[in-house]
Amino acid sequence: MTFVLLAVAEVLAPAGSRAQWKTPWSYEGATGAEHWSDLDPEYAACNAGKEQSPIDIRDAEKAELPAIKFEYKSGPLKYLINNGHTIRVNYRDAAGKGSFLIAGGKRYRLTQFHFHRPSEEYIHGKPYDMVVHFMHEASDGKVAGVAVLLKAGSANATIRQIWDHMPKTQGQEEEIAGVEVDPAGLLPSDSAYYTYMGSLTAPPCTEGVTWFVLKTPVDISPQEIDEFAKLYPHDVRPLQPLNGRVVKESR
């Protein structure tokens, strides 16, 4: 159990100058997704787990689900990183401070958000152009992920702020002086959602993550998609089997 908790912390916590993963991995080839569990014992869940993410959301069960609320705040772009797999914005807010997701009466603090192209989640058999994953952690260690689907359309001001400063090569976190980013700029106006129990979508693939996939996509311009694609044209994990899990859909 200890190594699992440490693995979650390693993925959720800001990395600073240290390596985010002690054992390298990739999306394709000899260290690709089908081999993740062979690379490190701490990655065992990646190929042996029964509640893995991402999934293709089909035939969701409509239910009376509680509304989710975002208490996101604008703040300095202090911990921007190209971690070798995506562009990520980390947060190091003290407990009780920062940005929060409120779900089912529980408060989850925003720890980081990052991007994938195309979306890792499929809706009725199809991916979106991109997705942004917001990762949160509650005081009891429970993890919640929010997936916001991104589709080609008009430009996004928040994306533009990040893209204007995103590191082109893998390295350490960077503080961008004079730039404030509001993560709420990446949220749709409607917070209707799908939800299911899943996992982190990268090693160590730790399970027990409550996922909220927002139903309404957010626009991003074709140019902004292309700019990310120059760095990461396909940073997605293959779809994982449901294994009997039920996906619920808010009314």
Short description:
It is built from five helices and 17 strands. With 251 residues, the protein is α+β, with helices and mostly antiparallel strands.
Question: Topology of this structure?
Answer:
Layout: H1 2-12, H2 36-39, H3 45-48, E1 56-57, E2 61-63, E3 69-71, E4 75-76, E5 80-82, E6 87-90, E7 100-103, E8 106-116, E9 122-123, E10 126-127, E11 130-138, E12 143-152, H4 157-163, E13 180-181, E14 193-199, E15 207-214, E16 218-220, H5 222-231, E17 248-250
Parallel strand pairs: 1-9, 2-17, 12-15, 12-16
Antiparallel strand pairs: 3-7, 4-13, 5-6, 6-8, 7-8, 8-11, 9-10, 11-12, 14-15, 14-17
**Could you say which overall geometry the principal axes of the C-alpha atoms support?**
globular
Number of strands: 17
Task: Look at the structure and give the mean pLDDT.
Answer: 92
Distance from first to last alpha carbon: 37 Å
Helix and strand element order: HHHEEEEEEEEEEEEHEEEEHE
SS element count, helices:
5
Beta fraction: 25-35%
Fraction of helical residues = 10-25%
Question: Which structural class is indicated by helix and strand composition?
Answer: alpha+beta
Main pleated-sheet profile? 12 strands, mixed
